[in-house]
Write a structure and sequence with these properties.
Number of strands: 8
Number of helices: 1
Structural class: alpha+beta
Order of helices and strands: HEEEEEEEE
Strand order of the largest sheet: 1-3-6-5
Largest sheet: 4 strands, antiparallel
Distance between the termini: 95 Å
């Protein structure tokens, strides 16, 4: 009877450990989570690409990327990113005729990664267009 109990317990522990090790998940790792554009003129929008890697063992799906204001436009990959794959989230800031001076904006990235939502930040100091 005792041998059977130990055997059942051993099988339970073995299957629990095996299933935990084979769990599939996506994870996202950004090379940087913030970027400073420095000082620039409002003449042209400024652009930055936030590079990320799927460090998990399942495909990563970016569900939504949401900028904190209408002066920030984002684009992101719509197809799943394989484990180990690298991609970019492109951010374009255009505060022309609106927001002179220092700014700080956030971009929320929602995905199926373990972390769920990751927040990116852009900052800068936009000056008036130089007239000649």
């Amino acid at each position: 009877m005792m041998k059977q109990l130990f055997f059942i317990l051993f099988l339970f522990l073995l299957t629990t450990t095996t299933s935990a090790q084979s769990e599939k998940y996506a994870d996202i790792l950004f090379a940087e989570k913030s970027y400073d554009f420095g000082t620039f003129s409002e003449e042209k929008p400024v652009t930055h690409k936030f590079q990320f890697t799927n460090t998990g063992n399942a495909p990563l799906i970016i569900v939504q990327v949401k900028a904190g204001c209408g002066c920030t436009i984002v684009s992101f990959p719509k197809k799943p990113i394989k484990p180990g794959g690298k991609e970019d989230i492109k951010v374009v800031y255009n505060g022309r005729n609106k927001n002179l001076g220092f700014f700080s904006k956030t971009i929320d990235v929602s995905s199926n990664a373990k972390k769920g939502i990751v927040t990116l930040r852009i900052t800068g100091n936009m000056t008036e267009k130089q007239t000649k």
